[in-house]
Amino acid sequence: MNRLFIIFLVVLACEAKAFAHEGHGTPGEAHTVKHYLLEPTHLPSIIVGVSIVFAAIAIVVYLIRRRKKIRAAT
Protein backbone atom coordinates (compact mmCIF):
# COMPACT_ATOMS: atom_id res chain seq x y z
CA MET A 1 0.00 0.00 0.00
CA ASN A 2 2.89 2.35 0.71
CA ARG A 3 4.21 1.92 -2.84
CA LEU A 4 0.84 2.79 -4.29
CA PHE A 5 0.65 5.92 -2.15
CA ILE A 6 4.16 6.99 -3.21
CA ILE A 7 3.28 6.45 -6.88
CA PHE A 8 0.11 8.50 -6.35
CA LEU A 9 2.13 11.36 -4.84
CA VAL A 10 4.67 11.32 -7.67
CA VAL A 11 1.94 11.40 -10.32
CA LEU A 12 0.12 14.14 -8.44
CA ALA A 13 3.30 16.22 -8.28
CA CYS A 14 3.95 15.71 -11.99
CA GLU A 15 0.37 16.57 -12.88
CA ALA A 16 0.51 19.76 -10.80
CA LYS A 17 3.51 20.80 -12.89
CA ALA A 18 1.48 20.19 -16.06
CA PHE A 19 -0.88 23.03 -15.24
CA ALA A 20 1.93 25.57 -15.63
CA HIS A 21 3.50 24.52 -18.92
CA GLU A 22 3.38 26.20 -22.29
CA GLY A 23 0.44 25.34 -24.47
CA HIS A 24 -2.38 26.04 -22.04
CA GLY A 25 -3.94 29.34 -22.89
CA THR A 26 -3.11 29.18 -26.58
CA PRO A 27 -6.33 29.37 -28.54
CA GLY A 28 -7.14 26.15 -30.34
CA GLU A 29 -4.24 24.07 -29.02
CA ALA A 30 -4.83 23.91 -25.29
CA HIS A 31 -7.37 21.12 -25.03
CA THR A 32 -6.75 18.94 -28.06
CA VAL A 33 -5.74 15.28 -28.06
CA LYS A 34 -2.58 16.28 -29.91
CA HIS A 35 -1.55 18.57 -27.05
CA TYR A 36 -2.04 15.90 -24.38
CA LEU A 37 -0.17 13.24 -26.36
CA LEU A 38 2.77 15.39 -27.43
CA GLU A 39 3.44 17.30 -24.20
CA PRO A 40 5.82 15.26 -22.01
CA THR A 41 4.38 16.75 -18.83
CA HIS A 42 1.13 14.85 -19.43
CA LEU A 43 2.94 11.54 -19.83
CA PRO A 44 2.71 10.38 -16.17
CA SER A 45 -1.05 10.75 -16.08
CA ILE A 46 -1.40 8.98 -19.44
CA ILE A 47 0.77 6.10 -18.20
CA VAL A 48 -1.24 5.79 -14.99
CA GLY A 49 -4.53 5.86 -16.88
CA VAL A 50 -3.43 3.18 -19.35
CA SER A 51 -2.02 1.07 -16.49
CA ILE A 52 -5.31 1.25 -14.60
CA VAL A 53 -7.23 0.11 -17.69
CA PHE A 54 -4.85 -2.82 -18.31
CA ALA A 55 -4.94 -3.81 -14.62
CA ALA A 56 -8.74 -3.78 -14.65
CA ILE A 57 -8.82 -5.94 -17.78
CA ALA A 58 -6.30 -8.38 -16.26
CA ILE A 59 -8.35 -8.65 -13.06
CA VAL A 60 -11.56 -9.32 -14.97
CA VAL A 61 -9.88 -11.98 -17.13
CA TYR A 62 -8.39 -13.61 -14.01
CA LEU A 63 -11.75 -13.68 -12.25
CA ILE A 64 -13.52 -15.16 -15.28
CA ARG A 65 -10.89 -17.89 -15.66
CA ARG A 66 -11.01 -18.61 -11.93
CA ARG A 67 -14.81 -18.88 -12.00
CA LYS A 68 -14.64 -21.27 -14.98
CA LYS A 69 -12.03 -23.40 -13.23
CA ILE A 70 -14.13 -23.61 -10.04
CA ARG A 71 -17.25 -24.57 -12.05
CA ALA A 72 -15.32 -27.22 -13.96
CA ALA A 73 -14.02 -28.74 -10.72
CA THR A 74 -17.49 -29.19 -9.23
What would you say this structure looks like, in words?
- By secondary structure, the protein is mostly helical.
- It is built from three helices and no strands.
- It has helices at 2-18, 33-38, 43-73.
- It starts with a helix and ends with a helix.
Q: How would you describe this structure in keywords?
A:
74 residues, elongated
Which class do the helix and strand fractions yield? mainly alpha
Computed over alpha carbons, the radius of gyration is 19 Å
**Average of the residue pLDDT scores:** 79
Query: What order do the SSEs take from the amino end to the carboxyl end, as H and E?
Result: HHH
How helix-rich are the residues, as a percent range?
over 70%
**Overall strand count:** 0
Distance between the termini: 35 Å
Report low-confidence residues grouped into runs of 5 or more: none
Shape: elongated
Instruction: Summarize the biggest pleated sheet.
Output: none
Helix segment tally: 3
Beta strand %: under 5%
Please describe the topology of this protein.
Layout: H1 2-18, H2 33-38, H3 43-73
Short summary:
Helices cover 73% and strands 0% of the residues. The chain is mainly α.
